[in-house]
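Subject: for your reference before the review

Hello V.,

The reviewers asked for a structural picture of the protein, and I figured it would be easier to keep everything in one thread rather than splitting it across files. Below is the amino acid sequence we used in the manuscript, unchanged from the supplementary table.
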Amino acid sequence: MTKFTTVAGGCRTAFRRIARLPKQLFAINPFDGDCLPSRVRLFYPGSNRPSLPFPHRWNFHDPIRILETYFHAADDEQGPGRHNRYLDVPGFAPVLVTRDPGIIRAIATATGDRPGQFDRDTMPSIGIARATGKDTLLFANGAEWKKQRKIAACPFGKTTLYQPVQFGEFAETFRTTVQQRIEVLRQHLASHDQESIDIRLEPEIKVVMLEMLTNNFFGAEISYDELCNRYVPALERVIDHIVSDTVRNKLGIPWRKLPGVTKRIAQARQDDAAFEELTQCVLAPRAENKALWKQFKSDAPDAKLISNLKVFLAGALEATTSYATWAISHLARNPAAQEKVFQEVKDIDVYTPETLASATYLRDVLNETLRLTPSLYFLPRRATADTWVNTADGRTLFIPNGTHILLDVWHANRHEDHWGVQASGYRANEFAPDRWQHLAASGCATKDILHFGFGHGPRVCPGKHLGELEVSLVVGAFVKTFRFQSNNDVNPVRAGVSTKPADGTRVQMSLR
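And here is what came back from the structure prediction:
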């Protein structure tokens, strides 16, 4: 039955491609409605565009530049094509890229398991699927996604995470880690007769985040040194491979499973082995019902959880590291904002849900971080049927079946039309935590000022509350303990699975 369904689906796809060809050859817009997107040329000599409008082996390391290509010269337009663009190459499904918050919200809200709703487009995730398996919450769609989402809801929910005992365990582990890092810094400064140190913080933050995931969330007992020296470097290389494998490995050849006849393959096999070992370490406490495993309501055998655990470990590490490093990087360039956070957290000795809730300026800093520099810089979707999308302000857009959709959160959040002075009191490309108080004072409802930092709609990131908890603890404790500044005003981005500061969050840091 499954084989028949696959063949039938392939035939329908082939028929759609043939039926679409006449319009494609005559460059007829396949979309309709009053949000009609403008066409982007595949090749445009002499245009000075940043890149070609599709990923290939020479540009995949800079995906944000590819998204920028879609909006090259778009600000010269005044209609809906200013924020909505499409690519339509004969023989292929159309690609729609939107930086329109209303369209982003409408499509994200209509993503789910019901007929006619949008799927999560799996094409950008094929490298992840080859590294972790396809039977995951990230890669699945339809009924399978809904089933896995239900299983994950309880342990990831805010009600579970913010229980006093569970919350206290997170805070205690982090406090221990911070004390260890402070002592290392003190010893370094004393031995070098220095008051400050120049340091890249991203590697340190990654280890702290992985420790909180493995030891607190899952109840494993992995030493800081082992996380730092073995598991984090291996995961970094696995994640780098995922990005390149998605673009370069069109044939899906599992070269990492070949005999280790070259140094590259040998290292890849070692990294895969370390990833598997780490996954087994966090799975082992399930048998003892430790940590949040006791909230996991499923009788699925351990073998069925491996793929999702791998996705969670890699994805959560990427997202929380991105979130925390961006926040610290912004504060390093904004001493006034850093001082305001310090004044808010300096007297907090015991972190509780209540004390975190009272740190309103820290929350504004974190919201502004997700707006300006979101970890998830685009959200991939795919139309499963000919679909009319209706925005909250009454606009409409017809999207044909099979269309690949990139919801360009990064550029939506940075455009003056949506987040500029007129809309929020501050320039859109400026880090301004006070923007959120200005919006609140203006009477803007939260639902009207979405930054999509964790996605939106039914497929919002399941680790949202865990990420908020971890990053609040990390950034709050870091500002309380250290003074830090950057020597560079500019703060460029590097992007792969997530976004991060290109300088690795390099700061000049000293103890308060």
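For the response letter, the relevant points are probably these. Confidence is low (pLDDT under 50) at residues 1-5. The longest strand covers residues 506-511.

Happy to draft the paragraph if you're swamped.

O.
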